[in-house]
Amino acid sequence: MRLKDLEEELCLLKAQSLYRNLKRIDSPQSDMVTIDGREHISLCSNNYLGLANHRTLKDAAISAAEKYGTGAAASRLISGNMALHERLESITASFKQTEDALIFNTGYMANTGIIQSLASDKDVIFSDELNHASIIDGCRMSRATVFIYKHRDVDNLRLLLAGSKGFGKKIIITESVFSMDGDIAPIPDIKNAAIEHDAILIVDDAHATGVLGKIGRGSSEHFGIKPDAGLLQIQMGTYSKALGSFGAYIAGPMVLKEFLINKARSFIYTTALPPGVLGASIASIKIIQENDTLLKRLWDNTRFFRERLKGLGFNTLDSETPIIPVLIGSAEDTIQFSERLFQEGIFAAPIRPPTVPEGSCRIRTTITAAHSVGNIEYCTEIFEKVGKELRII
Ligand SMILES: *Cc1c(COP(=O)(O)O)cnc(C)c1O
Questions:
Q1: Among 47, 105, 176, 179, which is best to mutate for testing ligand 1, by the most ligand atoms less than 8 A from CB?
Q2: Domain limits of the chain?
């Protein structure tokens, strides 16, 4: 292996319009961000409630650092288990209305940790074809047999469940809100299939936490799903998206927490989250539970923008949430679309394979509670202009 080999691989990516580079943000995350010395409307953050630069969260992070310091100094099982970890877990469990919760350092680590600890090479996993890379990687690490079912297709899932004989555990895993499409999985039907086939159900609420349900508890609140005796139902979610902080949780029965503490490698072999981050997450859940103003604004903004885009003739797939994809098609056109938006003061990253399937490149827009109606209107005008220029509409 020589440096030249790396350069060649990069050249190939460039030729295929699949090369990726970093854009630097010189401001806090909000509805507007500074890039290249100029303000842009941010249309691609997961900061759904606009909490990532909220005064109360910042104060909570600062006072947690003042009181407990900047580092947790060790993994949870050695000496890193501090009062704030346990407080955040108990607040998370009551927010999620589950028996208990366990913090992971990231959603990526939560998914890989839980799948790898529950499944082995004797087991079988049923995974939606559009599930996130962290789920895919967790499946690979587990060495279980993996059946990919068609996107949100419970009939296809049932067929695969019925045809799978001779395995140990059966595990079904799905995102609730799909991160690149913004549609919602039919969780009640999937849950019934899990009960019928005695399978474990794992739901990834990364984009549903703080977004779905009456006060933002997630997909279980949205669908009115209660814990069910006889079904191991596991919810995973993040503090890093709508909640404006960092880290992830698993919510479920107490014995699940005990199991993961003993088995999940991505929990065991990593330094615990630092106090500042935990303080911000605790403050965020309090804000969400006390007041639904931000949630209401998020959904008003979402409906407004999606209706406008659809009215202009853009294909927003089956989006039902603040994630609103604008389907473009080829990687080349998508990059051009994104660059034109950028020139007009809108930051919306192009999404290409392997993040999405070939030929379905898109501008994945996300709306937040922080966007003003005026700015959303401006975005629709620019989308119309660029869409016509590039003959997308
Ligand atoms: C973002 C995301 C994750 C990973 O969460 P991080 O905390 O960012 O590591 C997992 N699953 C889905 C569906 C996501 O969108």
A1: 179
A2: 18-47+292-389, 55-290
Q: Which of 170, 241, 257, 371 is catalytic?
A: 241
* Beta-strand runs (E) in the chain: 32-35, 38-42, 100-104, 124-128, 145-149, 170-175, 200-204, 233-238, 248-252, 323-329, 346-347, 350-351, 361-366
> Measured from the CA of 108, which atom of ligand 1 is nearest?
9
Residue 230, pLDDT score: 80
Tally Cβ neighbours within 10 Å of residue 4.
8
Of the CA atoms within 13 Å of residue 321, those in its CB half-sphere come to: 29
Tokens, residue 294: 């931000």
- For the stretch 204-234, pLDDT in tens is 999 999 999 999 999 999 999 988 878 999 9
| 63, two tokens | 């006072």
- Fold observed for domain 18-47+292-389: Aspartate Aminotransferase, domain 1 (3.90.1150)
Ligand 1: which of 45, 174, 238 to mutate, most ligand atoms within 8 Å of CB? 238
| Mean pLDDT on 3-29 | 94
Tell me the whole-structure pTM to 2 decimals. 0.97
Here the tokens at position 306 are 């999606």
Token readout for 324 is 């609103």
Take residue 142 and report the two structure tokens written for it.
């587990």
Residue 33: alpha-carbon gap to chain centroid: 21
| Strand spans (E) along 116-238 | 124-128, 145-149, 170-175, 200-204, 233-238
Q: What is the pLDDT of residue 5?
A: 94
* 96 catalytically annotated: no
Q: Is the domain defined by 55-290 classed in CATH 3.40.640.10?
A: yes
Token digits of residue 276: 């500042």
**Residue 315: how many other CB atoms lie within 10 Å:** 16
Q: Take residue 346 and report the two structure tokens written for it.
A: 């809108």
Question: pLDDT tens, 380-391?
Answer: 999 999 999 999
pLDDT-based confidence at 74, cuts 50/70/90? very high
Q: How far is the CA of 206 from the centre of ligand 1 (A)?
A: 6
Calpha distance 365→199 (Å, rounded): 35
